[in-house]
Amino acid sequence: MSEPKGSLSEPRLRRQATRRALILDVALSLAEAEGWDAVTTRRVADEIDFTQPVIYQHFGGRDELIRSIAVKGFELLAAELHALPQSTSQSRLEALCHHYVDFGSTRPRLYEAMFATKTTLAFASAETPAELRATFDAVKEVVALTVAEPEADSVAELVWASCHGIVTLMAAGRIPPDRVGGHIVRIAGLAAEDAHES
After folding, report:
1. What are the backbone angles phi and psi of residue 91, rounded to the nearest 5°?
2. DSSP 137-181
3. Which of 114, 136, 138, 195 could be stapled to 146 by a disulfide with Cβ–Cβ 3.0 to 4.6 Å?
């Protein structure tokens, strides 16, 4: 029995998903090794012995490829933050900040795709992808252990901005790594102070 016109069989869908994941992995590996300038559809295709049209079957072009890598990064970060062990509110917030900073510091090109590379991703709007919202929710979930609504949103933004600043300044060589722990303790302390004031 033939498949209905326009439908895809499960094996074919699985092959497409596997190929798409491979393209994303190879593109990110290239970026981490050589920077984003090295990531072109031709170079990615050559690395995995595909033709360029195969890349375009899965992604409209380089911009969509990088956008998809950014979304994948947010999905990964959200999952890792949600999986942090339970502990007291302040130590859990410190653990979240440490994990966030480690994520950005050990995956610099992925972090660039998420925050610095020009993409069409919408932040803080109705068009914000679910993966980005999930990352913010993971931060807010920990903040909300000590800070009540409606302040939890703004304090979560402050925590995120502080961690992002540390990652960015570390990447630029502006913050010595041995000071990061102290900065994170201060970030957690600021959130705790906000809780006492509200």
Report:
1. -70, -30
2. HHHHHHHTTTS-TTHHHHHHHHHHHHHHHHHHHHHTT-S-GGGHH
3. 195
1 falls in which pLDDT band (50, 70, 90)?
very low
Straight-line distance from the first to the last Cα atom of the chain, in angstroms, rounded to the nearest whole number: 66
pLDDT at 6 over 60: no
Ramachandran assignment for 117, one of left (phi > 0), alpha (psi -120 to 50 degrees), beta (any other)? beta
Quick count: other Cβ atoms within 10 Å of Cβ 173? 7
Q: Which pLDDT score, from 0 to 100, does residue 143 have? A: 92
The tokens for 181 are: 């722990």
Residue 72 reports pLDDT greater than 80 = yes
Would you state the structure tokens that stand for residue 161, as one six-digit string?
A: 């901005």
**Contacts for 35 with CB less than 8 Å, ≥ 6 apart:** 109
Token pair recorded at residue 128: 């914000």
Q: What is the pTM of this model?
A: 0.86
Residue 164 identity (one-letter amino acid): H
Residues present in the chain in total:
198
Owner of token pair 């992604």: 59
